[in-house]
Fold each of these.
Amino acid sequence: MYKVFVNDSPIIVTSSQQKENNFPVYQFKNVVIDEIIHKLRNKHIDGVNLYTTDLENDWLLFLTKLKVVPAAGGLVLNPKKKVLFIYRNNVWDLPKGRIEKDESIETAAIREVEEECGIFNLKIIKELVTTYHIYYHEENKLKVTYWFLMDSNYDKELTPQLEESITKVLFKNDENAKIALKNTYSNIKLVYDTYKEA
């Protein structure tokens, strides 16, 4: 199964016939992806299931319909197991950004976290999850973000990257993280839940 968000509404590409939500079901081969995106963006539907009997091939086909923008980011823990959050555009988020040309995914993830948060001594512990969301900038684009679990013992003051509209950078304990997750994106909840389930 692949879950792609348009705003916070999912396109679920699946080969499972078990319905786990109340979204309409369409045959993957019969849909026009741009029409589905338009319906979700304009809130005509809250989500959609695209059923396929050939998940991997149809997923590759789905990727050819959009310009793919690769990105990488991190869920960072400090020695007290608090999670690093950023506050951008009135929403709590996790640090991430575009992968530059000839840059490895891991290098990009560390660089973006360092730049957005003013933190150092980052170590990648493991891969966490890959998230997908569609946004519009001159055309529909699919941002594919590779997330890593990281840690750092950096204990100096953190510096939000203001030119990226980040106004706060904070480590949050479980209780405060749960509050922050009430004002975040579905993809960020997915990253956090994946970390908690591991």
Note: The longest strand covers residues 123-136.
Amino acid sequence: MSDRVGLVERSLSTPTREEFDGRVDEQATFLRAAIDSGELDTEDFAVGLELEVYAVDDDGRLARIPASVFEACNKELGLHNAELNTDPDPFTTAGIEAQAAALRSQWERATAAAGDAARELVLDSMWTVPPTDGSHPYLSAMDDREGVTVPRNMRPAPRYWAIDRDVARHAGGELSFDVPGATVEFPSILFESLATSIQPHLQIPSTESFPAYYNAAVRTLGPVLALATNSPFLPGDLYDEGTDPRALLADTHHELRIAAFEQSVNYTDPPKCRVPEDIETTADVVSSVVADPPVAPFLSEWVDDGDGEEFVDNFWEYDHKRGTYWRWLRAVIGGDPVDGAGDGRSIRIEYRPLPTQPSVRDIVGFQCLVCGLVVGLVAADHPLAELDWAAAERSFYAAVEDGIDADLAWVTADGDRTSDSETIFAEVFEYARRGLRERGVEPATVDRYLAPIEARWDAGTTPSAWKIAQVRDALDDGATLADALARMQAEYRRRSRDCETFADWL
């Protein structure tokens, strides 16, 4: 039996589950002590970023990424996916520009490597042009590996396989994906790889004040996502037979990525992927991970990840479980050294609901928006935290469905509850700019990265709204839904390559 298959079977065994749970409990005690002692305090704020992309062939169809490309980027869940990461930098002018330069450099190397392999990497949130063999066959293809059934087009990593088999077991063998115009069954979680995302990270220097930043961030999820929506369509061959394209344009959600992720994994009680609850103390983030239903537990001695970081080694199993704590916002303990901002022992917010954006500058713009907004709200002692959690959750899912036109919820600087979008986005941009000023970020840098996002609000449109309009125009010209999606996607790819920001499309 191969090592990979053996690890999957060991992961799903009862003895492993019992040993894993015991270690997580012990490691949680270690982490609570580290939090209480201030061991996770750092010198300053820091920022980082993750970016997911997918690949297409010369015809614009989804395609696997050849191994040679991964010398310039990292592997992800699907064989068509890749990930780029920035090392953390101080949250300053120089740090933001370093983030942008690092991301741009990685992107240029990755796209060049992909081009050499007859592939194109796409800065987009959901692929809509199917692979040659069709979307459902591609996402449903399964292989028998020595008695363990695994998705053929999933990255052959034991952790991915074990998560997939564990979730499929909870789901009874079939996973349902139900969105406007499409109800589809899949045998694995691979349909999650329909979508890609960006994840800004914000290191909080004071452990004691961490809950203020975390709870404020929860209440920003709806408005920030409303500005970012970018996945209103599935591949055309996944829609139900007889779907009315015109009705679909009216009914589709602006951010189908949220449904793709939630419906691929939410088969436990309580569901694992959702808006996180508020926290009262920093240690609550540890307790939340401990209480979360485990999926595909691994033990540290099975994996030689080459980390060698003694502090993280003290909570390896906890950190593995945190990797399947799929909330739209979560805390990450550990970190990397950041010159001038910490020695590597830190706690940070990972902001997870944002779709991949059309350009590197747009992506860094949302990093600045998120991090500046959270810092600005707390620095100003803004009363947004008084917004009840249920209203923040409803606001988030309203943005998922309706994008920039969503019915959002907010509490103003004067303490008034409002759903007026003009008021909400005025404060979103005001406090994002304030947070960047608090960090001493130069006005030119603030404008460079926030102005294109502000332009979306001024124009009343986002990438998802642009896509819907493009498909509508193609339908008006007599195209079928599948052809309209392909036409939209080709134009999206062209503009993404040729324009510095989405605002240049408007």
Note: The first strand starts at residue 46 and ends at 56.
Amino acid sequence: MSHSPRIRTVLSCTTLVAALGAGATACGGSDGHPLSAKPYDAAGQIAFNGPVGSQKADPDKPLEVTAQGDDGRITDVTATDAAGRYVAGELSADGDRWHSTTPLAADAHYTVRVSTEDEDGSPGRKVMTFDTNVPDKKKRLKVTFGPEEGKYGVGQPVTASLSAPVKDKGARAVVERALKVRSTPATEGAWYWVDSETLHYRPKEYWPAGSTVSVSSNLRGLKVSDKLWGAETKPLTFTIGDRVEAVTDAGSHYMTVYRNGEEINSMPVTTGKPGYSTRNGVKVVLGKEYSVRMTSASIGASDFYDKQVYYATRVTDSGEYVHAAPWSVGSQGYANTSHGCTGMSTGDAAWFYETIRQGDLVRVVNSYGEDMPAFGNGLGDWNMSWKKWRKGSALFNGAKEGPSVVDAARLRPQV
């Protein structure tokens, strides 16, 4: 037996009005109240526990809006600060009460919009504003971003230095969510908690050559912990140059320099001799100094030296440089004779000095030295796998306290 198809008839609002005839006015609710009616002032229908007049609210105190009487209910509440941040809240099923479920920001201006309806279904509206108290200066968490504005190499990480330690995982998550890093073109990246007062941000891969990186914070006024509130943070923008990478092969005693994947120079070098072997791994260029005095006392070397070196490019906090070493030209390309630095002729060192910039990459391979650490001796961030790096974020699998920064007494040049 065949069945006729079931036909559903859908009338638009306009069609329905026309069908009802000229006496019909507009679409409305089932009770006949026009949906386009102007909301009435719901001031007498609600109670609000916010401050009165010029008083300021305690940001630790939850907001609460309640319906008054039996002739209406609350249908919606939104609370936002001047930065556009919403306050999460819950509305009871019967519409009698709404309360906030997240802390307010300190030193903020809030707007609370309450929607209601009366027993006949007519919409009401009330808008209220107030300010919250300013936290004591001792309770403000300040963030300083690095590096300074400028142009850097593709290996330059973003750093965030905090004015007070943050150890609790939940508090770290609040801080981390507020720190924003955007790059053009976009690239995947994450923060890593080096220690309780320091975060580093790096992409999964190196920054794309020619990109722009913008760093900002929404931490101002946010409650980090019971005794700590976020302070205003100066944003940062810097640009990325070409991908320049120098690969030093301690076994063949040569350094090869690449720009955007193409070889642009190859130079004979000497690296650390036995007992002072140069560290293996990726090092981010920290800066350049035309002249640096290097002594045996600075690293506790048993054989005495006291030299003024030129065209010095620094790659570790503890004093490892790429620099001119005219006294070892006979060994360059044949043997490792330095106390840890990479030495080359004065002409080659001058070329390297002029070619390289902060944030570029120097990678050492085939050395008998230790591996470059990720933290504590410059910027070794790229020596950590991406999988492990992500675990250093409070927003992923938690962040354990990282190694402390090396003591300033150890940050001495070595030759």
Note: Residues 210 and 240 are 5 Å apart (CA to CA).
